């Protein structure tokens, strides 16, 4: 059986020798983040295969264009540009839409899906017969030094790829990799890369070794080169870094500007000048794209080459962006420490204004437990400072920005009407004082916030109009389509909702939530096959997604596929032991099969976790009824009614249980009560009344 490989060795030359011995015509790429930052190695793979893919299967490239180009815009020279959003065209100082870890993960899933489908088509179409069983092989080396985005993508690729179609080789040193990647490699074949001590020195003098090390962007793992570099004259080394940086300036992609170029400027002869400028430009690009780990790294390094007094603005920007980027990667304590450093270090009002806002957002959105009262104190400070800024233009834009932040806190405090007043005031002030083409992105964010508040306040018609305006304003930003579809579903207009979901799926990277939402809408519309396709797509990307696992199992159960439903329940329970919904689903499958004792155990397990879970109560009552324990069935159904309120079907079932237990009057009371409720099964209720001598109720 063909399996993925993990090759472990301290030296690159040893790993590559082992690769050559165990692969055939493999594409070998380097993943060291100092070369081109996020997507180093992935960019090499795509550059190698995209020309053929674009020529043979342009539909495949078009389907994944956004994800393929997102972090590697230079690939547009091969496949053409992506569609643009307002955020892409907004000036950096006007950026108010930022992307987190989920956004980058969706891009990674899109790239992985492209690679899997490319390999499948390559194997199915045009592969010589004598090579039909040979998969496409890709070797990712230096993975121990890969940037976080690349490691995440590799984890997804290894987990999702069928090694018979696309075989992945991960080569790294003996250290542990990221947790998700280590787990994905659990079933891979691990091979050691033994040391070969017979290497002939390529660079005989120390000066040549130092130059080679710098020209290789300080990624070579040859101890002789590293030792020569560390022992060389610092001024000579700095000049070598300057020379390498100058050469890179002419040809560097954004990836190289975020990594190799910043490294050389940082270690060159002017770290606080050209080094600081390179780091700041790189960090701004990383912020715009949402590469959070890179933003933190660049920001901390930028602080290291900035004098807080001489370079106050840059030091502040390095710090605040690093602090903000700590949040999506789960480093909340470090985020707060960085913000507090700014408050202690500076007296500039704008620094205190923006930092107060950031601390307020930490308290109202991210820290646990949330503290909205403390958040409002910090945000009032930001609003107060914004209102007294001397420049009228700054006073306007910053006041609007911070009133919008205050609206978010007020919404979290439960003051939705006050939040809406604030947002509408922000919109009115900008519309009244700015030209139509000024701060367009931020104005769209205000409109978005108003739409969400209108939904929360039960005014979906007005919210739908706002979302429609946003779709027209920013047609390639798909959140608006998804939000509008949600309103259309609530209205009962499933055709319109599905049209919006379909368009969003076509334009967006593969967000699991988007496919899940479309899947539930398709199921509601009666398109069970389409719903199953969407749920399956989600679970291929994120097999731990509990909501989708439950939704697919329920749909399989509804359509009579007991084997499929049970397999989903079992898989889900292996990942989420003792999960109530899955235990109940497992019990329902067993109940359908007539395996009553096993079903009872499953329902008992669910109710131990949640004694008032309605589906488990109702279904356990069925088991009790069938096993001639009507009194226990009555007890379970009574609790279920207490949880869900009057329900004609549960009342019918409890009436039947009362009848079986010899309590005819109680049965008649339940049947009569059920007949007064909407959606009751009138014919069956009347039949049961007649059977127990109650006549035909009107």
What's the gist of this structure?
The chain is mostly helical and 698 residues long. The chain is built from 38 helices and five strands.
Provide an overview of this structure:
68% of the residues lie in helices and 4% in strands. With 698 residues, the protein is mostly helical. A 5-stranded parallel beta sheet has the order 2-3-4-1-5, sandwiched between helices. β3 (136-141), α9 and β4 form a beta-alpha-beta unit. α8 crosses α9 (148-160), α19 (332-345) runs antiparallel to α20 and α35 (630-644) runs antiparallel to α36 (648-660). The longest helix is centred in the N-terminal third of the chain and has 24 residues, at 101-124. The model is unreliable at 128-132 (pLDDT under 50).
List key phrases describing it.
698 residues; mainly alpha; 5-stranded parallel beta sheet; 38 helices; 5 strands; 4% strand; globular
Give the SSE map.
Elements lengths: L4 E4 L3 H11 L4 E4 L2 H4 L5 H15 L1 H6 L1 H6 L5 H4 L6 H4 L11 H24 L11 E6 L6 H13 L5 E7 L6 H6 L4 E4 L13 H10 L7 H9 L2 H16 L4 H5 L1 H7 L4 H19 L2 H13 L7 H15 L5 H14 L3 H18 L5 H15 L5 H21 L3 H18 L6 H17 L3 H14 L5 H13 L2 H14 L4 H14 L2 H14 L4 H13 L3 H14 L4 H14 L2 H14 L4 H13 L3 H15 L3 H13 L3 H12 L6 H10 L7
Parallel strand pairs: 1-4, 1-5, 2-3, 3-4
